[in-house]
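Dear colleagues,

For the upcoming journal club I promised to circulate an example of a predicted protein-ligand complex. I picked one with 7,8-dihydro-7,7-dimethyl-6-hydroxypterin because it came up in last month's discussion. The inputs are reproduced below in full, followed by the predicted structure.
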Amino acid sequence: MISTALLTQAVDLYIGLGSNLEDPLQQVRQALSELAELPHTELICHSQLYRSDPVGPADQPDFINAVAHLRSQLQPESLLDQLQALEQKHRRVRLQHWGPRTLDLDILLFADLQIHTARLCIPHSQLSVRSFVLYPLQEIAPTLQLPGGRSITELIAQCDRGTLAPVQV
Ligand code: ROI
């Protein structure tokens, strides 16, 4: 049984989704509907789905990425438990560091909290250098300010888009 420790009120937070195995488009679409079903949590919106070359070893399939905006009353650790349970449900395999995966769910931002524990690093440690996170995030939160004072606009200005492109449906 996963704990569902609650905050006194719901807060806004952002999740990064990524997949490059076993029908990645379907993995990400399915995960978005599962995020909407999390307890004490509302899916506010999500970005388009994007395709990009892998960051890390090049001998793996392209990734599908998206970012979701949630409003949740779950404590950060409880949210992490819920996300890890969803990753397991998608038979998450991690064969190799920075290698292919069926589903990755990362907490990017959680209200304006800064958390550095053994389990959690919020804001996500790679947030500012990953185009596959920043561009979808900017799509759904163009005026976002990060804890620490930097804006999404400033981060995007320093991050090349690379091959990242919306998936044409
Ligand atoms: N590369 C891309 N393009 N998208 C990802 O979600 C992603 N996730 C990862 C690594 C393997 C670092 N590379 C990625 O974990």
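Two points we might discuss: The helical segments are 24-36, 76-89, 131-140, 152-157. The first strand starts at residue 6 and ends at 19.

See you all on Thursday,
B. R.
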